[in-house]
Amino acid sequence: MTTKFEMGEEDLDGLFAEARADAPLPPGSLVQRIEAAALAEQAGRASRPPLRANIPSRGLMPHLSGWFRGLGLTAGLATATLAGVWLGAVQPAGLSSVTDSVSRALGVTASLDRVDLIPAFDPFQSEG
To answer: How many domains does the chain have?
Structure first.
């Protein structure tokens, strides 16, 4: 026969308090060896010159790579931007066949090649 045991928050707090009270401590010689190794490493690092000087960077790419946490992400964003510009400007033949089939499926009568997506700016320049 199986008994069901439910544990509440106060039971869990009691178990944690008991575990903290019985926490094993490392031997004193281990702590001393770790401290000696850490102090020796700090002394060794303090005597070495820095690997590279902090030279302020100039230009757009160093700032972008700082914003996006590295040149890999910046290169990926630049590649995606150029691919989007290329697809928008060139519009490969395979893409136009896809847009034609989508426009027929949606019942659009005008060809998407003749849609003026970038209208002239002249109406906005009129004075008065």
So the answer is: 1
